[in-house]
Structure formats: C-alpha cells, structure tokens
Amino acid sequence: MNDKLSSSEEFLWQYIQENLTDIPNLSIIKLSEDANVSTATIVRTMKKKGYTGYTDFRQQLTASTQNNFKYKNLEKVDHDIKQAIFKNKYEVDNTLRMINIGTIEDAIQKIKDSADIYIFARGFSEFIANEMTTKLQLLGKNCIMSSDPNIIITMSKRIKREDLVILITLNGETKELVTGAKNAYKNGVSTLTITTSENSSVAKYSDMILLGFKSQTSYFPDYEVRSRLPLQVISRILLDSYVIRTKKNHQLD
C-alpha cells in the first residue's frame, strides 16, 4: 500500500468509498461505467491498495459484510445513512488490516522503558491524546500531554534521550507537530507517530509509525473535522497490548 495513487485512481478510490454498499453487486465493467474510469485504472488502483485485483477487493468486501456484521436491522435504513454506517466500518476494517504487529511490540517496549512520555496533539486528536495520557498515568507512567503550539515547540527542545514522544495527527502536517517531531529527532529522542499519512512531514522524523486508514468521504467538507476513528482504534489497541504485555512480564518475574 505504499504506491501513490494518480489523480484518476484517487477519484476512483473516493467513488468506491462513497458507494461501498453497491460495490459487491457491481462488475468491473459496470463500475468502470458508473465511475467513468477505465477498467485498467480499477485494476491498478486495487493493486496499489494491496489487493490482487478488483475481484479480490469485491470478494473481501462481501465476506466482511457477511461474516462480521448482521445487517437485518439496516434493511429499512435510508441508503445514504447506510453508506455512513459502512464508511465507519470500512475505516475500522482497513485500519485493523494495516496494523503492524512488530511496530506495536516496539512501541510497547519503548513505553515500558521510557522515563517520561510526552504526547503532542492538536484539534480533534486532543481527545485521543487526553485519553492516552490518563490511561498511561493510571498505569504508573509519568506522562505529559500538550496541545499548545508554543509549549509543544519549546518542550520538544528539552526532552531527554531516555524519554518518548508520541504524536497523534491525522494528516501529519500540523506545523507545530512537525517542528516538535523534528526537535525530538535532532536530540535523539524516540518518537512514535499515530497517523493516517505514511509519507507526511511528521513521519519523516518518526522512529515508529502506527498507520490507520482514513476515508476520503467527509460529511463536513467545509471544516477540518474528519473522523479520528482510525487513530482512536490504534491508540486503544496499543494501550490494551501494553497492559497485556506488562502483566505477562510481571507474572513471569
């Protein structure tokens, strides 16, 4: 999933996400006609997204619908509302698919070994940061959270090598978070980024990246209030895994 999509492929991917409930019933020819793209574009897009082709994508989508969800309660739901429900499920399913277990294990070890943990976030991501901070404090870690631009920039210059910086950012381009990550990187501080943008500016200065899937569909297009659901899912998995690992190690001790 590292290949960058072309503009036509981006358009197709967004079209698919906006019409998820219809895709299982669409042949590649029909999708080509409805989305006004070539069948070759469809195949290239699917391969860049990690599937063998359109049939593989459609089969996985259909299987996910049949095996993981019971939709009888949605039969009479308005089509557009059903699309909104599927959008959230699709974000979660793809985020789980993208989880790197090795990175989770590395992050757990870093959290365990760090003297102090600093969590930086802005906007809606602050809610996730606050939750993580509280949970880590309850687990006995010295954890500090900041969303203030000036404090983030100033504090990031003073963090010690034995500490850990966690950055929570949807697109990875928030100016003060990029600066904070860069400052920590220059000082040899370990950084963990939870994001949906693998090639973002923040990611360049991150030792560990936990990547989630961001839907292109937004019901608030005039505002930057896109769903942080993928980041929430990752943060919960990380902290739940941390508790499981630390409890096991404690029992072994």
From TrEMBL:
<dbReference type="InterPro" id="IPR047640">
    <property type="entry name" value="RpiR-like"/>
</dbReference>
<feature type="domain" description="HTH rpiR-type">
    <location>
        <begin position="1"/>
        <end position="68"/>
    </location>
</feature>
<dbReference type="InterPro" id="IPR036388">
    <property type="entry name" value="WH-like_DNA-bd_sf"/>
</dbReference>
<dbReference type="GO" id="GO:1901135">
    <property type="term" value="P:carbohydrate derivative metabolic process"/>
</dbReference>
<dbReference type="GO" id="GO:0003700">
    <property type="term" value="F:DNA-binding transcription factor activity"/>
</dbReference>
<keyword id="KW-0804">Transcription</keyword>
<dbReference type="Pfam" id="PF01380">
    <property type="entry name" value="SIS"/>
</dbReference>
<dbReference type="InterPro" id="IPR000281">
    <property type="entry name" value="HTH_RpiR"/>
</dbReference>
<dbReference type="InterPro" id="IPR001347">
    <property type="entry name" value="SIS_dom"/>
</dbReference>
<dbReference type="InterPro" id="IPR009057">
    <property type="entry name" value="Homeodomain-like_sf"/>
</dbReference>
<dbReference type="InterPro" id="IPR035472">
    <property type="entry name" value="RpiR-like_SIS"/>
</dbReference>
<feature type="domain" description="SIS">
    <location>
        <begin position="107"/>
        <end position="249"/>
    </location>
</feature>
<dbReference type="Pfam" id="PF01418">
    <property type="entry name" value="HTH_6"/>
</dbReference>
<dbReference type="InterPro" id="IPR046348">
    <property type="entry name" value="SIS_dom_sf"/>
</dbReference>
<keyword id="KW-0805">Transcription regulation</keyword>
<dbReference type="GO" id="GO:0003677">
    <property type="term" value="F:DNA binding"/>
</dbReference>
<keyword id="KW-0238">DNA-binding</keyword>
<dbReference type="GO" id="GO:0097367">
    <property type="term" value="F:carbohydrate derivative binding"/>
</dbReference>
<protein>
    <submittedName>
        <fullName>MurR/RpiR family transcriptional regulator</fullName>
    </submittedName>
</protein>
